[in-house]
Amino acid sequence: MRFLPVSLTVLLVELADLDETLALFASLEADPVDGIEDMVPAARTLMIRFRPEKLTAEKLAGAIATRDLSARIAPSDKCVEIAVRYDGEDLADVAELTGLSVEEVIRRHTESKFTVAFCGFAPGFGYLVGGDPALQVPRRQSPRTKIPAGSVALAGAFSGVYPQASPGGWQIIGTTPEKMWDLSRDPPALFQPGYRVRFIDLSKSSTTVSAGTAKGSVEPPAQSADALALKVLATPMPALFQDIGRFGQTGQGVSASGALDLGALKAANRVVGNPVDFACLEITLGGFSFEVNGRAVLGITGAPCPILVRDAAGNVQAAETYQPIPLEPGDVVTLGHAPKGMRSYLAIRGGFAVKPVLGSASTDTLAIVGPDTVSTGTVLTIQTETKGLAPVSLTEAPAFEHPESGETVTLDVIMGPRSDWFTQNGIATLSGQLWTMTPQSNRVGIRLSGDVPLERTDKAELPSEGTATGAIQVPHSGQPVLFLADHPLTGGYPGDRHRCRIPSRSRRANSGQCQDPFPARDGLR
């Protein structure tokens, strides 16, 4: 058992194998340590996020070191049958890699008795163990940019089913019409840790499967014609609902998500007197405009974008960020492009009438979980109940100075649990050159580009393990990716991850990272 620091609030426990990992996970589930907030089991590691005001990393390690690793997660009585068309693009390759015929690969896969070991990567993606050892094959050398939902695949000792279309590097042997993730179910994930799974060959079975409709969000609440509302007139980039995040759903493969700038989100709510965990609109690069049909109080924080308010008579006045902005019926508010920073947060006194999904109103762009994105023409209902709300705040201010485009931003780095996968030259390169944030960046992570890629010690694959917000993951290219709020729960690029503390800022970075990523889940397993 090894304890590896991930960040100031996250610890990675490395164990001998999957059995020990699941045993420790079962022990901590049965007898929790006060201060642990979340756990993410993986192939041979358990990532633990803890509250530093209650628990230090040293005390956590001490409490874990004496745990009995003979415990096991109790097997479930639930057996899920998955009907498969064995028509996968890699089926012939798997047969060649294993030395078996295609028919024998199918037979061994359908006769295997699988168990869901843990969930990660994406909502509803279960890592299945217990398959025939003869079917253990490596990931593809070159991951695909898009794998269809329902693809049944193999990688190493695991089998799995892709719950949604996504990049990926596993060997595809078939497809299923079963919906692995559906919010109309309870629980939404078809696979839960401990469930038993059996695959059925559709070509030899009379089983019929109803594909149904998988859902990533829920319908918004109905609104009356006279409800206080704002109508979106323009949004060059779709706005997103965000709050402090979605916690306690890692068992289904769902990460926390939440606002990229939590300080700005909380400040926006305080400006208008809302509780700090109310949902706000996260607006990227300005250009957002809306009309309100009644009296309201608005607060905008984050990137210091220009704000113009045009009343029903056509008069225009400027307004300030971090200040309450009173609105009258017919007022049109327009946010200009911020000269600094990227994201602004918009709060309305009383809050938006948005229905939480799995306990949060945050929209996870990678997992496709949460309220729908907000686009031009969307009408958003505003809650008018003010009982219990605080007075509006006149004392809010940004927590830091937002950087301008082209500015160099220096970020603190905590070397992570896999720094030994890199040469000393590679580690020196991380802080020895400027890195530029590329356009292929979004809420998942920031893709960085440097003149000299990070040099690794070898080309071995890293078994899937938990990933944390602020982690720097290095794919084959040697160009780092800095994970943000919508990153996958588990990752396994054949590179390593350095972990860092990062303020929510940046455009360029001088010590190895930047701010803002990309639908690249390809080698993330």
The side-by-side strand order for the widest beta sheet comes to 25-34-27-28-31-30-33-26
Strand % is 25-35%
- Helix share of residues? 10-25%
Q: Kindly report how far apart the N and C termini lie.
A: 22 Å
**Separate helix tally:** 6
Q: How many strands, what sense, and barrel or not for the largest sheet?
A: 8 strands, mixed
The count of domains is 4
Number of strands: 34
Determine the structural class based on helices, strands and strand pairing. Answer: alpha+beta
Model description:
The protein is of the alpha+beta class and 525 residues long. Helix content is 11%, strand content 27%. It folds into 4 domains: 2-65, Gyrase A, domain 2, CATH 3.30.1360; 79-204, Beta Barrel (Cyclophilin); 229-381, no CATH class; 408-509, Beta Barrel (Cyclophilin), CATH 2.40.100. It has helices at residues 18-30, 57-65, 91-98, 102-111, 262-272, 424-432, and strands at residues 2-5, 10-14, 36-41, 45-50, 79-84, 114-119, 126-129, 144-147, 151-155, 158-161, 166-168, 171-175, 196-201, 229-234, 240-242, 280-284, 289-292, 296-302, 307-310, 316-319, 325-327, 332-335, 343-348, 379-381, 408-409, 413-414, 435-437, 445-449, 465-466, 471-473, 481-483, 490-491, 497-500, 508-509. 49% of the residues are buried.
